[in-house]
């Protein structure tokens, strides 16, 4: 028999309410023991929860969800308690003292949902993203995955691959008979080409998915004292980085997260670029350069009070700082001042519009993880091989299609995934 697991599923204590979730074969017994009787299924029932000594631990609400129509697929109970540390500690202690019950591991409720066939891996990962979501675009993206957007797409592709293979093999079996139309391969080829195009287009959307999930990556670079840290603080509207008139103040990367129109933007301040005067600064400058190379957008800051604008990095957004001191100096870029506030709002608008452009249509179904990309890329190669035809060797074509279908099945978890389950579910929080 599987263990019955329990955990605090709500957030940090103290809080108004705490929710303890229990899942597994002993849920009914536990409820009877704790609240005296089995509450009516799916009805929140007001009750006293008592310990073994019959003393009341807390008075709250209990819900009983009989399996299999539950999140995990097993019997589930939820206890709504007063959100106090002592109440929750006492209830968890009481539950732990019942033989066969134990604390849930990270993501174990969701893992059971997967193992019981309630959700596939992309939906499980979508739920993890939904819980982590901080911005509206992250929420929408996670929502699509968690309700089966990717699952439906991938299962459809897998079915097409399996069908195409079956048709090819049928053709192989009957190839010596005259009544099998020779055009079968043409039909298959046509469908596979369409599929390869769909997969290719989907793969090309990965970067957009990454930006939606992890944020649009903006890095501020420029010479020492250009006002990079001042700009970071102005854009974040709080004092995150140290500002001083001493050149070489910032030595390390300083990152803040912004929510611009629902899109997460990660903004990084860096060490001023110059020939370093010391070892630590030199490391900082190396980090700045490396960081700028990975960025989705580089803001190159130039001090307008200095004559030499220097060369602009290709693709960088050129911004002139300290416009309050610069009068009517000619400059081919945006002008800002963290003193007067000039240009700060426009710069935020510009970053938002670039982030929006990079993300595109947020309702598209995109690859959500590099794990998916690995399998998608392999499936795409195998599919192209199959279309290539192996010089007419139908067996090899069919085998390539079988392998491609397996790759897709690994994304959703339909094909053996034992080895990756722990990696996926250990990233969840406890109680999910
Ligand atoms: N007048 C004026 N001074 C500014 C402005 N922005 C920054 N400063 C000043 O410029 C100096 C350097 O600012 P920082 O933000 O530390 O510059 P930085 O580019 O981060 O410098 P490093 O970290 O040393 O590379 C400080 O004395 C700031 O007060 C501005 O818009 N107007
Ligand atoms: K400085
Ligand atoms: Mg600085």
Automatic annotation (TrEMBL):
<keyword id="KW-0342">GTP-binding</keyword>
<feature type="binding site">
    <location>
        <position position="118"/>
    </location>
    <ligand>
        <name>(6S)-5-formyl-5,6,7,8-tetrahydrofolate</name>
    </ligand>
</feature>
<feature type="domain" description="TrmE-type G">
    <location>
        <begin position="215"/>
        <end position="356"/>
    </location>
</feature>
<dbReference type="InterPro" id="IPR031168">
    <property type="entry name" value="G_TrmE"/>
</dbReference>
<dbReference type="Pfam" id="PF12631">
    <property type="entry name" value="MnmE_helical"/>
</dbReference>
<feature type="binding site">
    <location>
        <begin position="269"/>
        <end position="272"/>
    </location>
    <ligand>
        <name>GTP</name>
    </ligand>
</feature>
<dbReference type="GO" id="GO:0002098">
    <property type="term" value="P:tRNA wobble uridine modification"/>
</dbReference>
<dbReference type="InterPro" id="IPR004520">
    <property type="entry name" value="GTPase_MnmE"/>
</dbReference>
<feature type="binding site">
    <location>
        <position position="78"/>
    </location>
    <ligand>
        <name>(6S)-5-formyl-5,6,7,8-tetrahydrofolate</name>
    </ligand>
</feature>
<dbReference type="InterPro" id="IPR027417">
    <property type="entry name" value="P-loop_NTPase"/>
</dbReference>
<dbReference type="GO" id="GO:0005525">
    <property type="term" value="F:GTP binding"/>
</dbReference>
<dbReference type="InterPro" id="IPR005225">
    <property type="entry name" value="Small_GTP-bd"/>
</dbReference>
<dbReference type="Pfam" id="PF01926">
    <property type="entry name" value="MMR_HSR1"/>
</dbReference>
<keyword id="KW-0547">Nucleotide-binding</keyword>
<feature type="binding site">
    <location>
        <begin position="225"/>
        <end position="230"/>
    </location>
    <ligand>
        <name>GTP</name>
    </ligand>
</feature>
<dbReference type="Pfam" id="PF10396">
    <property type="entry name" value="TrmE_N"/>
</dbReference>
<keyword id="KW-0460">Magnesium</keyword>
<dbReference type="InterPro" id="IPR018948">
    <property type="entry name" value="GTP-bd_TrmE_N"/>
</dbReference>
<dbReference type="GO" id="GO:0003924">
    <property type="term" value="F:GTPase activity"/>
</dbReference>
<feature type="binding site">
    <location>
        <position position="432"/>
    </location>
    <ligand>
        <name>(6S)-5-formyl-5,6,7,8-tetrahydrofolate</name>
    </ligand>
</feature>
<keyword id="KW-0630">Potassium</keyword>
<dbReference type="GO" id="GO:0030488">
    <property type="term" value="P:tRNA methylation"/>
</dbReference>
<dbReference type="InterPro" id="IPR006073">
    <property type="entry name" value="GTP-bd"/>
</dbReference>
<comment type="function">
    <text>Exhibits a very high intrinsic GTPase hydrolysis rate. Involved in the addition of a carboxymethylaminomethyl (cmnm) group at the wobble position (U34) of certain tRNAs, forming tRNA-cmnm(5)s(2)U34.</text>
</comment>
<dbReference type="InterPro" id="IPR025867">
    <property type="entry name" value="MnmE_helical"/>
</dbReference>
<keyword id="KW-0963">Cytoplasm</keyword>
<keyword id="KW-0479">Metal-binding</keyword>
<feature type="binding site">
    <location>
        <position position="21"/>
    </location>
    <ligand>
        <name>(6S)-5-formyl-5,6,7,8-tetrahydrofolate</name>
    </ligand>
</feature>
<dbReference type="InterPro" id="IPR027368">
    <property type="entry name" value="MnmE_dom2"/>
</dbReference>
<feature type="binding site">
    <location>
        <position position="229"/>
    </location>
    <ligand>
        <name>Mg(2+)</name>
    </ligand>
</feature>
<feature type="binding site">
    <location>
        <position position="250"/>
    </location>
    <ligand>
        <name>Mg(2+)</name>
    </ligand>
</feature>
<dbReference type="GO" id="GO:0046872">
    <property type="term" value="F:metal ion binding"/>
</dbReference>
<comment type="similarity">
    <text>Belongs to the TRAFAC class TrmE-Era-EngA-EngB-Septin-like GTPase superfamily. TrmE GTPase family.</text>
</comment>
<comment type="subunit">
    <text>Homodimer. Heterotetramer of two MnmE and two MnmG subunits.</text>
</comment>
<dbReference type="InterPro" id="IPR027266">
    <property type="entry name" value="TrmE/GcvT-like"/>
</dbReference>
<protein>
    <recommendedName>
        <fullName>tRNA modification GTPase MnmE</fullName>
        <ecNumber>3.6.-.-</ecNumber>
    </recommendedName>
</protein>
<dbReference type="GO" id="GO:0005737">
    <property type="term" value="C:cytoplasm"/>
</dbReference>
<feature type="binding site">
    <location>
        <begin position="244"/>
        <end position="250"/>
    </location>
    <ligand>
        <name>GTP</name>
    </ligand>
</feature>
<keyword id="KW-0378">Hydrolase</keyword>
<keyword id="KW-0819">tRNA processing</keyword>
